[in-house]
Amino acid sequence: MFAIAISLVASVCWGSTDFLSGIASRKVSVPVVLIGVEGVGLVVILAIGLVTGEPVPAMRWLLQAAAAGIVGVTGLGLFFWALSLGKMSVVAPISACGAALPAIVGVAHGDPVSGLLAAGLLAALAGIVLVSLEAEHEGETHPSRAGRLPLLLAGLAALGFGSYYVLFDAVADHSIVWGLVAARGIPVLALAVILMVRRPARPQGSTRGLIVGAGLLDITATALYGIALTKGALSAVSVVGALFPMTTVVLARVILGERVRPIQRVGIALALGGVAMIAAG
């Protein structure tokens, strides 16, 4: 129950991160938003590591964390790109389907699955899919390649997110703090090089605040998720953590006025019911 509660809070933080980042990605280039979000998180978690004096784990785990960070930030970049092109309420749920990968891996490696837990996992994933199905009815009857691009990007982002969950699972048992430092260090350096070459416009005013806020929420969510991994099964924690689109959809509806259609409401209800079953199972 504790792990489920933590991962649920993490999903709310991630959903809020995606909302803020999605708005920022429409005002400045995706690499600028990425380095802001990742960089803020890196500074915070590095400071925590230095202050607490937590032991640095073996190089094997740092390298695995770095690999997780590379695939994760790649997925995040694709996700921000998709958010800048399409509706948040459609793009976010598609990217959350990456939860299927760690759920399958967790079960394959022996995570306990009761009947109620299995039903909860299926309900939560089905809810995510139902929200995503609305994308097929957006726009024209025969969508253009440009209209399909956000959906393709979101699907690729889902693969990146799922791979991150799987790779970081073992790292969390050795050091969440230094694992997160390693996961963000290389991507931030790579993004810095890209920005030095491309020299895109820098964020100004409220956009800068959006990016900083997104960075703080993202590192909070990632740290909470890492803690949840040490307390619960990967298959359950990953699915609950992937409920972040519910927060993004609600914020997009309330603040941006994006329409939440009946099938999306059904998906939200099904996903939340799935969380309840996961917690009970």
Overview of this protein structure:
This protein has helices at 2-25, 30-52, 59-85, 88-95, 100-108, 115-133, 145-172, 176-198, 205-231, 234-241, 244-256, 262-280. The chain is mostly helical and 281 residues long. It has one domain (2-280). The longest helix is centred in the middle third of the chain and has 28 residues, at 145-172.
Summary keywords:
281 residues; mainly alpha; 12 helices; 81% helix
Summarize the structure.
The protein is built from 12 helices and no strands.
Approximate strand percentage: under 5%
Order of helices and strands: HHHHHHHHHHHH
Give the terminus-to-terminus CA distance.
9 Å
How many helices does DSSP assign? Answer: 12
Uncertain ranges: 135-144
How does the overall form come out from the CA principal axes?
globular
Number of strand elements: 0
- Oligomeric grouping of the chains: single chain
Main sheet summary: none
* Estimated helix fraction: over 70%
Number of domains: 1
Helix/strand structural class: mainly alpha
